[in-house]
User: Fold these one by one.
Assistant:
Number 1:
Amino acid sequence: MGARVRPIRSSETRDGHTVTTTPTAPAQAHVTPGAKRVDEETIRSIPKAEVHVHLEGTFELIDLIELARESGVPLPGPAATLFDLGTHFAPDTTDTIDAGSGVGTGGLSAFLRFLDWQCGLIRTPQQASALAYRFAARQSASGIRYTDVIVNPTHWSAWRGRVGDLLSALAEGFDEAERDGLCVINIAYSLLRTQSQDEATTIARWLVETRPSRVIALSVDGDERVAGRTAEKFAPAFDIARDGGLRRTIHAGESSGAEGVWDAIRHLHAERIDHGVRAIDDDELVAHLAETGIPLDVCLRSNLTLGVYPDLASHPLAELMRRGVTVTVNTDDPAPIGTRLENEWSLAADAYGWGLPQLIALAHASVTASFAPDALAAELHEAIDARALALGV
Ligand code: ADE
Ligand code: ZN
């Protein structure tokens, strides 16, 4: 039996939370040359967390067809090619990043418009709860035991002025799923990058005062290229969030450069960076990430599909890890991208020669990076170790 690879973890208190920092990068980065390929079935069997997935990106094609039919809304194109956004959501030309293929041919902004369309199909609390429950079931099928799911209410047009009702309906679906033994899910409430400072501070204050069920964090997403640098604008909202006990995870370094990652750290008290891959262009930032253990929540297929990198050979994931940065591997928007977490982990394992020890380390890193309650996180670390033993790691 080989040596058990377990990241060294140490607990510290940050903003009144006990958080566990993970200097896991050396263990994560260690590659076994010629490691035996780990299949998706084995990956599914490893208990794990997912920390970068948008609820808006989890509508399956069949969900869209059924919801559109229920609401009497015409499809924007042939059902079979609904996820071909280049066809149905043509971009305004100036606001796109370099085109990928399929879902990404319109770039990130066209993709966000597609999310608006599909979230607009959810109009009743029953539909929202059902979507939440089905998401939890799919997470469980991938062996995911805990998820921080990003919800950006600006996409959900039917709920303007009653976002609290949307959050309650989603929480009901997650509650029911948990009662049924499915994946435990908390919500990162996301601001859209183009929202105003006033809107952001009002939302942060409302979240802190009302503490909607299952909302654990404040987040920012959207297209950085279109909105420009927004961290200073959102700083007061994130001060309120931090002081009010909300965790923080920020999209940066996807459609912006490394400066977006610096901004998220300096102005928004980011505990995690969603994507963050453009950090690779700034040596000082890479060293800072390695030193602080702030994880980058990387999504390989999303980056390829949305044209952030043209191919895996040019993707910086392996180099970031080699230089000591903690990473998690996630799906981002699994349904339109056509992926599952086991596919993402398998893609990374095949590309970088990871075997079981690296995937076990990745599972530990996913839990450590997550905002799971301490007791659940401890339980999951134990479960990962038990699974590792059973797999002979
Ligand atoms: N919302 C959903 N997916 C996103 C992405 N990849 N980047 C920014 N915002 C998003
Ligand atoms: Zn994302």
Number 2:
Amino acid sequence: MKMQSTQLENSLLNSLSKKESSFTLGHSSNPSPIVVPGQTIGMLGGGQLGRMMILEGRRLGYRFVVLDPASDSPAGQVADEQIVGAYDSPMAIEQLMEKSDLVVYEFENIDPDTVRMIESIKPLPQGSDLLCWTGHRGQERKVLQDAQIPIASYQVVTSKAKLVEAIEQIKLPCVLKVLTGGYDGKGQWVISTLDDPFPPAEIIEKGILVEKFVPYVKEISVIVARGISGEMEVYPPVMNIHRNQILHMTISPAPIKEGIRERAEQIAYRLANQLQFVGVLAIEMFVLADGTILVNELSPSPHNSGHITMDTTNPCQFEQFMRAVTGLPLRKSVRKNTGIMVNLLGEHQEAFFEQFAKLPSCAKVHLYGKSVARVGRKMGHINFVGDSLSDLLELINEMSIWEPLSGQEWEAFVAIANIK
Ligand code: AMP
């Protein structure tokens, strides 16, 4: 859905008054909000991330207008207004800008050209830089490499012959990934021998990332917020368990040694400092048995693994995001308790509703207002909070909403650290 940016830009620049573009994003050490409570924030995208951003932003007194192609979107339901329209519709974008004092995007698959064009007219503190490369695995690896962030060895190839050459250099096992568009594990091939099925030629020709398979023992992620003035707040690492390549569970704090926690947070600070972004960035990392950390992926917005902060940490990632983009000072994040987030997917919905009334008070339910449940579709999440992670895990394991943890998943949970 790539938009014809020049055409759109011209039509919009002509139709909007010049005085609206006279804003500056100051990088002063004493930030003042660029929008104040009562003013309106326009949002590109109406998904669950947007919904949770708005719920926090409303507490701070902001108004919201959402642009999404689907009516009754999760974010639209809690906004003051929703414009139903495509992200590349000049009319819809013009409407969004006319109604907004500041614009944000809530998800990462938005076209950077659209963002760049809006940013030339309205304050859009997140900017378009991060979006230009976080949506492209090859470019993302290059940025990480240039920033001297530890990553698995990789190459980008566009032919079968070069692919085989790259595998010989990197050495099996390898993971092949499409450069754009693949998410939640789609568009990936694990190659253990040269006889394993390769992606079709037409996919290879578009560009494939060949990456060393990482024998990780844990997947962790770190959320970092960065404000307009450059101030930063890092949330302690959480551990993630995926099922069918979709995030199943996040454990907070991550059961890792203190030294690994420190290094993971340092990586996050270093990256945030070098990237100079505004908003919230999630950094997914692999932890190896010897304690080595390799960064796997970045996400330029609040992240599913950060949803646990809604009930364990003050402020949560969504409030911190709203503070960052509006120019309010960030708050030091303070952890209130331990917690485990479990995603509610379409296939869990029926069992969940059977249990809903019986859930204990430590289960904080967050539903996204989606009316159609499909397998793999994120319908909501539950944050289980308390003092003991193992008690919470036992409680979750006894519920008949999800499959209990496998032996391997338990191992990731108990390995390395002493669990309280
Ligand atoms: P991604 O789409 O890159 O986040 O990958 C989805 C999932 O595939 C990750 O959460 C890992 O479980 C797995 N994965 C991705 N890259 C690698 C790798 N280089 N080695 C081992 N597992 C990987």
